[in-house]
TrEMBL record:
PROSITE patterns: RESPONSE_REGULATORY. It comes from Sphingomonas swuensis. This is Anti-anti sigma factor/receiver protein PhyR. Keywords: Phosphoprotein. The modification 4-aspartylphosphate is found at residue 194.
Amino acid sequence: MSLGQELAPHLPFLRRYARALTGSQTHGDAFVRATLEAIVAAPDSFPREVEPRLGLYKTFHAIWSTANIEEGGDFGSENLGNAEGIAQARLSRITPLSRQALLLTALEGFSATDAGYLIGAQPGEIDNLVQEALGEIERQTLADVLIIEDEPIIAMDIETIVRDLGHNVTGVAVTRDEAVAQARAHPPGLVLADIQLADDSSGIDAVRDILAEFSVPVIFITAFPERLLTGTRPEPTFLITKPFQRATVKAAIAQALFFDAATVPAS
């Protein structure tokens, strides 16, 4: 099996991680492209002492660490808008290493040992880094949250997680029309949306309707993440895979709000 064939199954999930890390599909996918270009240019340098997924993420981190993102980097820095500027200001209050540890373990499911390998930290440091990231991000960001989910048990679980983080749940919608109506009645600061809804309507369409009227960060929840991580069209920045872990939802919420310029502390 060629190296390309070994890496192909892992690319959608590297895109998920890169988008969450940068807060942008455009910037995240650009880092993934740069990673692939580096591998193609020097295949003999690819880490073969570890499994392909670890080697892929390790190569990504080599690109990430040299891009100097705090200064804008080389990936479209001339197009950074106000939201990106606010996110960069927030980076001064929480280290990128902490955020990487959080996303690698909670979102991507790496062990502390593997996460340590990827970011150059000892395994024993990872737990402390994760707690540092969660503590700082949770203190920074509180929001009104709209949940779009037609499965009652899953909706209840998400609502519990959201409230445990200190956020307010404005409503739980089970159809496209209901979601739009609730957003209009109580404009949310964050939307958590399933893809397939109760009346066979689409959570994607519901979000599209909401975004036509409000600027709000969105996290999609789906059992088929690969369909929304192709890198070939406009796709979600933040994506959670079903079945999900509570830590995954917490990490995604924290990261989505971290990059949201409109979020203000709740009263």
